[in-house]
Design a protein that fits this description.
There is one protein chain. 37% of the residues lie in helices and 15% in strands. The chain has 11 helices and 14 strands. The chain is globular, with a radius of gyration of 20 Å. The two termini are 21 Å apart. The structure holds pyridoxal-5'-phosphate. Pyridoxal-5'-phosphate binds next to helix 4 and helix 5.
Length: 364
């Protein structure tokens, strides 16, 4: 049996370090914000090459608070990929704005920058690229368009911890970069957690206030904020796991390299990595018109796979009101029919990857 992802193994590998963290937080007397959260924010900002990091409760809140901090609200439009996890769209809707989908580049799965300008209207306030599957989006043309039209750039980096775009880590290319530390992400907590990173002091400051009831000084509320604080126990766990992130991303890279070379002769469409991208392989996604048969065969061979994602946001009941019927975003719709995520993670062995390859080839 090869599981799609083993969530226990990373914590077993770090057992003694994590046991110490629990004791440290227990004995600290700080259970809301405090020194562990401050330290994680410093360490993660440094890791990302960003000036500021603000910890929040989860990745969706990171996106919502980023948009609120930039003043995006009712009547505004935000450009989003048509093929993303629904959280990207939900954040836009949560602030009362409208998600405006743009199709992905079929080679990289990330938003196609050549299609963005046609989606810009007088109501557009921001572009929200997603570094999907751990592959950085092509940020330079997006940033150039944003500058030309006076738009903000909010990056959804929930799948891209450690990825580099043109040699520089994701973390401060756009106005705000939003992170999720959901347990299955490349940097995952043992529960919900999230953060934003930015070089904009004003935005970091506003999110710090918004996440804590709109308050800077206790019982003084300057705006109507929310409770979306990063939990100190999760921050302390993330500090331990951050030290292993690069090594664990390298292990993912080694698995991806096996798939890239061993599956090259098959009928599968494999992920393509542009010269400017250093992905971190959050997911290894192949495409085939016979996806369901392949998934079924792998299941029978004891190999866990998943589909990211089976229904694009515009075809979800949640977005029926937008009236975007079947065929309105054909690239996203075809991907939803054809993509399959093979097992990958820091605790998948190279031998297991070879078994996945053999099982895939047996179907060819
Ligand atoms: C995981 C994820 C999110 C949301 O993160 P949560 O911490 O679960 O709220 C947002 N966007 C993308 C692309 C994600 O993969």
């Amino acid at each position: 049996m090869i599981p799609f992802l083993d969530l226990k193994a990373p914590h077993q590998e770090l057992q003694s370090e994590l046991d110490e963290v629990w004791a440290r937080v227990r004995d600290s007397g700080w259970y809301i914000l405090g020194p562990e959260v401050d330290a994680f924010e410093r360490e993660y900002a440094a890791y990302c090459g960003a000036q500021h990091c603000v910890g929040v409760a989860n990745g969706l809140d990171a996106l919502v608070l980023a948009l609120r901090a930039l003043g995006v609200g009712p009547g505004d439009e935000v450009i989003v990929p048509s093929n993303t996890y629904i959280a990207t769209w939900l954040a836009v809707s949560a602030v009362g704005a409208t998600p405006v989908p743009v199709e992905p580049d079929e080679a990289t799965y990330d938003i196609d920058p050549t299609l963005i300008s046609a989606a810009i209207t007088p109501r557009t306030r921001a572009i929200l690229p997603v570094h999907l599957y751990g592959q950085p989006a092509d940020l330079d043309p997006i940033l150039a368009l944003a500058r030309a039209h006076g738009l903000a750039v909010v990056e959804d980096a929930a799948q891209a911890h450690g990825a580099r775009y043109r040699g520089r880590r994701i973390g401060a290319h756009g106005d705000v970069v939003c992170w999720s530390f959901y347990p299955g992400k490349n940097l995952g907590a043992m529960g919900d957690a999230g953060a934003i990173t930015t070089n904009r002091e004003d935005v970091a400051d506003r999110i710090r206030v918004l996440r804590n009831y709109g308050s800077r000084v206790k019982y003084v509320n300057e705006v109507q904020g929310v409770n979306s604080r990063l939990d100190p126990l999760q921050a302390a766990i993330l500090r331990v796991k951050l030290k292993h992130l690069d090594a664990w991303n390298e292990r993912r890279q080694a698995i991806a390299a096996i798939y890239q070379s061993e599956l090259a002769g098959t009928d599968l469409v494999l992920p393509q990595v542009p010269a400017w991208a250093e992905p971190v392989w959050h997911l290894y996604v192949v495409r085939t018109p016979v996806r369901d048969q392949l998934q079924q065969a792998l299941t029978e061979a004891g190999i866990g796979t998943l589909v990211h994602y089976p229904i694009p946001p515009h075809r979800q009941a949640a977005y029926a009101a937008l009236g975007l019927g079947a065929g309105s975003f054909p690239r996203a719709e075809a991907m939803a029919q054809q993509v399959l995520s093979l097992p990958i993670g820091p605790h998948l062995t190279q031998d297991q990857a070879a078994q996945v390859v053999a099982a895939v080839k047996a179907q060819q």
